[in-house]
Structures are given as C-alpha cells and as structure tokens.
Amino acid sequence: MAPETLPLFPLQTVLFPGMLLPLHIFEPRYRKLFADRAECDPIFGIVLTRSGREVGDRPEVHAVGTAATLLEAIRYDDGRVDLAVRGGRRFRVLDGNWDEAYLTATIEWLPDERAEEGSDEAARLARQVQGAFATYLEALGRTMGQRFEGPEIRGGPAAVAYAVCAMMPFGTADSQRLLQVDPAAPLLHELLGMLKRERELLLTTGVGGQADHHPGRGFSAN
Hints:
Elements: E1 4-11, E2 20-25, H1 28-37, E3 44-51, E4 60-61, E5 64-75, E6 81-97, E7 104-109, H2 120-144, H3 157-167, H4 172-179, H5 184-205, E8 220-221
Parallel strand pairs: 1-3, 2-8
Antiparallel strand pairs: 1-7, 2-6, 3-4, 3-5, 5-6, 6-7
Helix pairs in contact: 2-3, 2-5, 3-5
C-alpha cells in the first residue's frame, strides 16, 4: 500500500483501535486542523508525545499511532470544539513536518489484526486474557474492599486485546509498547503476562502499576 499523508494530533495518551476518546480543541492550530478535516475520515492521527509539551510546542512524537474517526463534534461560539473520536487502524510515521499550522506526516498503514480473527491461537489467547482480566478485577476489588465487574467485550481477539489495554491503568510507555505489537497473538501473549504481573503486585503490595490517563476517563485538552 502506498504511503499517505495524514495530519497528526500529538497527545499524552495512547488511543487503541476501536476505543473512544473525547477531546477538547482550543488551540488555534488545532481549530484549523478541525476546520480543514471536519469532513474527512480519518479526521487525523493520534500519536503519543515523546518529548515536548502538547500546548504551544512542536513536540516529538512516537512513530506508531492510531487513526481517529470523528463521531461527534460540539462547536462553541468562541471557536472551541469538543470532539468524540474512535480509534481506527494503526499507522507508522515515515516523516513529518510543520509546514501547516499543525504536524502533518507521511504514514504507512500497519497490518489490520482482524485478519487473524480465525486464528485458533489468537482465539485461545483472547479467552485467557479475558479470564486474567476478570481475575485482576477480583484482586483489585479485594484490595479496595469493593466489587468490580468488567464490561462485556465483544469482537474478535484483536478487539479483546485493545479493550483490555484501554481499561488497564498502564503507564503511557507500556500502552505505547502494546500498541506497537502485532499481530494479535503476540499482543495477547504480551498482555497476558502484564495482567498476571499487575495481579501479583496487587496481592503482594496492595497496589498495582502506574495509574495513568487512558481513553474514556475525561477530556484530553489541546
């Protein structure tokens, strides 16, 4: 597949395929990005910042990101916009520039993990991941004196992996590393090990890994 050009939205969070992310747009450059791309699908790519600030800076970004499809936009009289986007396909940044007001990059699309939906290994690992996630929630509830029940996860192995990735309180470095793993079976295998590690941390120390922002917890401002 030939490389394509896609505007990028650097954030301090990782968007996984299939997951929802609310955004608050207030910077002039990202207002322009929205105005330029409001009718496009994907509207832009979400990439994790490697260094530099989201606001007022030209941050360096990680090479693998996720395309974002616009679901809803609420416009305000002062020019600000609230967006709801859904993660789509993953991509790799080949090169980028700031010739526009915002970052634009040449990208190549990464393999679509749904091609593995019929894999027996991926299906087996997906079941194990769902079981390990339920066990983690049980340990979390025991530690906090509450009861936690995870939502029903629908879809194939890749959908299971990304949903669990998004719901776990991993730090951004771990989340980015998981986003970069393909295809689905290796991703599920890696995730399974991390779930077991997080559960053991809860049971031995009473605390899990680094709680960090992830899609669905609130607005990411930019």
